[in-house]
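Quick question, first post here. What does this chain look like in 3D?
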Amino acid sequence: MDKKFLAILALLMAGILVVAGCGDSSQESHDKGHEPGMDSDHNGHMNMNSGTGLSDMMNGYQLTIKNGPAAGAATPITFTIAKAGKTVTTFDREQTQLIHFYLIRSDLTGFQHLHPSMDHNGQWSVRPQTVTPGRYRIFTQFIPHADAKNGQIVLSTSADVPGVGHDAATLLPAPTLSTQVDGYTVTIDTAPKAGALTPLTLRVNTNSGAPVTDLQPYLDTYAHVTAFHEGDLAFSHLHPEGEVKGSGGPNLKLAAELPEKGKYGLFIQFQTHGQLHTAHLTVTAE
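> Answer (accepted):
Ran it through. Tokens below.
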């Protein structure tokens, strides 16, 4: 066979192998890849490393309080979310709501988790229950539609509510794995670890010890759990695992990831017979 012909044939075969190899590499990269910062939990909720939530700006989104909380009355709080100087008006729902709003005092009292309404100009309004004087932090948790692939964003800012008793801080309750509220006993099986994903089991019994099996879905879950770090009020949001279908309880699996060591106030919200209950636990993350 002609040597020139054999050389051309060898070059052709080498080219085919290179193309095939490139194709395999591309497919492997596609199979393993995912959008940065985005993941889904067991309920299909979109999660994001939103840090501690202690900034009023993240990924270009800015929280601005127009009218803050006032003492002694249920005065509406108004705010906007903006990006590049333009008010944002389109959001994706997360746990059935467009925005989750949290108000908490610096001593981890006065916790309120509310769901504001937005007007046609993009200004949000929410009316909290009566607020006592003190230093507060306002948190907003949302998914902007334009950047939905990057998941949720948590923004916050401080608010000072003047009045008599402004500096009268309440001592944080002693750390415990169990507490009672509205005739129910709420227990977690272990204290979470700081800086690591800690699997927890949350259990709801009646105060007489009977297991509660009629937990109703609330915000697309059987228990909405929020944690705030003592001192700086760093924010963490915990989702129970498993599908929400019919009634739930008494045991709920959670995954806790608290950013730093210290005491945390855990606020556990669950619903029975159409009534919302909020249990407060103090835990120490080592």
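The mean pLDDT is 85.
The CA atoms of residues 215 and 248 lie 5 Å apart.
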